[in-house]
Design a protein that fits this description.
Rossmann fold; SGNH_hydro_sf; 49% helix; phosphatidylcholine lysophospholipase activity; 5-stranded parallel sheet; 230 residues; alpha/beta
Length: 230
């Protein structure tokens, strides 16, 4: 009985420690701080690209690291993040790295409610703010569609099928009106019920290597298109 109580106390203390650390660095500004400090400014002619996103972006380097090899691509994805968190860290993790292009992939965790309830308009507002910050600093913007998801295992019942489709329509419209490149992963990866095709995912939300192999050439083409814009 005493061992069970001790285990429970230690478990609760670990949870409190985790919650405290999260509260102290809600946007996880510390995650890439050391790497950012070591990163030198782009050399003349270097077309640096930063990938800003959540676990789908962060996981790209784990499941398909070859995509980044030999390219001036920098991964700044953080698992679980929502658009307000990305907006807070957009300056140190994107602007200060002086890229030519930023590829923004965001929104699915907002729909899942990872940092609380958010409307599609609020999600879109945060993405627009990131795009405006990038443009104000001479950075070309690629707006990625949210990837298809039929449901979230960690947060069921949020109707992602409808919300993702609506948000993607908002992103596509904004990109067209503001001369930004829209990167449509969704159409290439969705199945008949508007979830992700099984062959491209290991859990219905995150791509596996085959999923990233689909996304890679699409991202390369979108980046080239952005770089060619006046």
């Amino acid at each position: 009985m005493k061992k069970r109580k001790l285990f429970l106390i230690l478990f609760l203390l670990s949870m409190l420690s985790t919650d405290f650390a999260f509260a102290q660095d809600w946007a996880q500004l510390s995650k890439y701080k050391a790497e950012n400090a070591k990163l030198k400014a782009p050399v003349p002619g270097e077309q640096r690209v930063v990938f800003m996103g959540n676990s789908i972006t962060e996981g790209w380097s784990n499941h398909n690291p070859e995509f980044f090899e030999g390219k001036p691509y920098i991964n700044r994805g953080i698992s679980g993040q929502t658009t307000p968190q990305m907006l807070v860290r957009f300056r140190p993790d994107v602007i200060d790295l002086k890229p030519a292009v930023v590829v923004i992939l965001a929104g699915t965790n907002d729909i899942a409610g990872n940092t609380g309830p958010m409307t599609l308009e609020e999600i879109m507002g945060n993405i627009v703010s990131m795009a405006e910050l990038a443009k104000a600093n001479g950075i070309k913007v690629v707006l990625s569609s949210v990837l298809p998801a039929y449901d979230y295992k960690w947060s069921p019942g949020k109707d992602p099928v409808t919300k993702i489709a609506t948000l993607n329509g908002m992103l596509k419209s904004y990109a067209a009106k503001n001369n930004l490149v829209y990167l449509d992963y969704y159409s290439a990866m969705a199945d008949d019920r508007k979830g992700m095709q099984e062959k491209y995912t290991y859990d219905g939300v995150h791509p596996n290597k085959d999923g990233y192999l689909v996304m890679g050439p699409m991202a390369d083409a979108a980046i080239a298109k952005a770089l060619a814009q006046e």
